């Protein structure tokens, strides 16, 4: 099993890079594990308390569970991955059944900040992008997907996203084996990464799609 970590600032284009890499891989050969699924369950908190949650700080992640799940997959056993909602700040009663595969892509802003998690990775990737470009993507995403107003997005960016990026995310670039400038627009870097993964899976297979996990109610 090849474990690849794909990190980078919020809005840097990590998800786009993941999607582009997957398009080059054989069917059912790759599984994506998003860091976002492992945010601590804060559904019991009041609306005021939830508004103050710092999602860009390493303490917001349940690292132990994420690492345990990676170890379980590597041992050949399926896991039940949590489903997290930014709207409710809670985990769903449903989980996602994830089966072992030849390649695991772990994606998230903070995944290179945890030493134990880094040790599990065979390849570490940092997706880099200009701060202005990241902010524009964050504004669109948070308004469309997380129900925030324009003013709320800017306040959240100033209070949490920017300072946490400078303190916890940008410094992890030094741990990366591959740095991808321009995010998902960098076709050359994506092709190089995809070629490396295809070589690990099967040199003769060139195209395919990622396996789709199934929902399981618990």
Topology (elements, then pairings):
Blueprint: E1 2-8, H1 14-23, E2 30-34, H2 47-51, H3 63-74, E3 79-85, E4 90-98, E5 103-107, H4 115-120, E6 123-127, H5 131-145, H6 150-169, E7 178-180, H7 187-201, E8 214-217
Parallel strand pairs: 1-5, 1-6, 2-5, 6-7
Antiparallel strand pairs: 3-4, 4-8
| SSE sequence, one letter per element | EHEHHEEEHEHHEHE
CATH superfamily: P-loop containing nucleotide triphosphate hydrolases
CATH topology group: Rossmann fold
- Name of the CATH architecture: 3-Layer(aba) Sandwich
Strand order of the largest sheet: 2-5-1-6-7
Largest sheet: 5 strands, parallel
**How many β-strands, per DSSP?**
8
Backbone structural class: alpha/beta
Q: Please tell me how large the radius of gyration is.
A: 17 Å
Percentage of helical residues? Answer: 25-40%
Helical segment count: 7
Quote the average pLDDT.
Answer: 86
- Top CATH class: Alpha Beta
Query: Strand content of the residues, in percent?
Result: 15-25%
What is the general shape? globular
User: How many structural domains can be distinguished in the coordinates?
Assistant: 1
How far the N terminus sits from the C terminus, by CA atoms, comes to: 28 Å
Low-confidence stretches: 205-214
Protein model, in words:
- The protein has 218 residues and is α/β, with parallel strands linked by helices.
- It has one domain: P-loop containing nucleotide triphosphate hydrolases (Rossmann fold).
- It is built from 7 helices and 8 strands, in the order βαβααβββαβααβαβ.
- The strands form 2 sheets. Strands 2-5-1-6-7 form a 5-stranded parallel beta sheet, with helices on one face.
- A hairpin with a 4-residue loop joins strand 3 (79-85) and strand 4.
- Helix 1 (14-23) packs across helix 7 and helix 5 crosses helix 6.
- The radius of gyration is 17 Å and the shape is globular.
